[in-house]
Amino acid sequence: MNDTNVSTTVLERLTEEWDALTPEAQKAARYVLENPADVGVSTVREIAEAANVKPNTFVRMARQVGFEGYEDFRAPFREAIRKGGVSFPDRARWLQDIGKSGGLGGLYADMAGAAIRNIEETFAGIDAASLETAAKAIWESRQVFTLGVGVNNANARNFTYLASTGMKQFHAIPRPGSTAVDDLAWADGDDVLIAMTCKPYRTEVIEAIRIAREQGVTIVGISDSPASPVVLNADHGFVVAADTPQFFPSSVSTIALLETLLSFVIAVSSEEIVERVEHFHKRRHQLGLYAEDPE
């Protein structure tokens, strides 16, 4: 059976009802059991042709194991594809399928495909050892300045917010009413600057990196090209894929990388991080910042 994280419930139904199925329905069921990934990306006509049975055979088989029809039967398999439980070629076929649905289906397929592709390309080009080295530099630093302007300002602040639930030395810059270079005025070799910008590259980010390097700050650079001035001037450079069918550059892979980097920082940190996070959230509950579940 092909590897898939489709709930085994559907496949178990087929095996449990096997003896009750007609010989033609068994042919259909056998194809599903041996090729579960095909179900989520194929129309009833396509999968019937592949299984060498009539389309109605798949409909009857689906009903016999408790579904209203083929579309209902196919739903769990499509959900597994949506969650990334099968290979990229299978997801690509699924995207092509929804792209044929008319209306905004094509745009939906293009956007979903770009998001999946950006994340896969980003992590394919980054190895765990490089992330670990950067994470250790961050953890061992005195202060960490996370710099992003424009859309990356929100990404930098989100990263800093998450980090601050367990660590004290993180600062998102530029601070309100300030400039990045002023915020870095007293930074030195004990500090780290995480800076990010994609084409067209923001001059204030490039200038902040230049000044920070002169002051001995360790640079973690995130950009969309190995030739980016951000990556070229970084001690730890990471390239993210940011292609998108829409006008604005995609932040999907940048956010995914930042979340992964933070997870590495926590992994290489001391055990006190767990206690800090627990204390942080316990305090929030005590202050009534979280809505408690109704009894």
UniProtKB/TrEMBL annotation:
One of its GO terms (biological process) is carbohydrate derivative metabolic process. Pfam families: HTH_6, SIS. Keywords: DNA-binding, Transcription, Transcription regulation. One of its GO terms (molecular function) is DNA-binding transcription factor activity. Residues 134-271 form the SIS domain. This is Silent information regulator protein Sir2. InterPro entries: Homeodomain-like_sf (IPR009057), HTH_RpiR (IPR000281), RpiR-like (IPR047640), RpiR-like_SIS (IPR035472), SIS_dom (IPR001347), SIS_dom_sf (IPR046348), WH-like_DNA-bd_sf (IPR036388). Residues 8-84 form the HTH rpiR-type domain.
